[in-house]
Amino acid sequence: MQTNNLVLASSSIYRKRLLEKLHLNFICADSGINESSKKNENPGQLALRLAEEKARALASDYPEHLIIASDQVAMLDQTQLQKPGNQHNAIEQLQLSSGSKVTFYTSICILNSATNEIKIDLDSCTVYFKKLNYQQIKNYIDIEQPYDCAGSFKSEGLGIALLERIEGDDPNALIGLPLIKLIGLLDAFNIHVLKKM
Hints:
Elements lengths: L5 E3 L4 H8 L6 E2 L14 H15 L8 E11 L2 E3 L5 H11 L3 E12 L4 E13 L4 H11 L18 E5 L3 H5 L3 H10 L9
Parallel strand pairs: 1-2, 1-3
Antiparallel strand pairs: 3-4, 3-5, 5-6, 6-7
């Protein structure tokens, strides 16, 4: 498989920017799948299933490709945090998260659409929020407007000021694509990021 036969199954600008860090040639395509959870599905299972479904949804359109897909589920206790979509929801989410921890489950999947071989992995990262007052939250939301981010913050931006600490193996996973695990999966498909082209 050639490195120019890579597809990122995502319309996310954040995932695109992360994958660009690896200096690989790829195209982006939106799978358009239903991302709702199933009964009795835990967050990790949901993230893994959705990544696989995203990859498989594009297999017929890209029959000779490695399709990279990812999904992220953010959990505050038993509540899943969605993308807020607007200022009101973002403020509400951060008020709930204040002084608490949120765990992000980020899956990574690679499907070889020519052979149907699939490899999949899961990263988990826990974020501990400071105790935040309304004005701090409102100031942050006004500046960064993280309406398209699960959890209502951008750890790669000013959102880092909301946090006490992060526990995880890969800071990229929190943004939406676990690059360390992705590199390992690419190696298994004989795509080596540091190999001289």
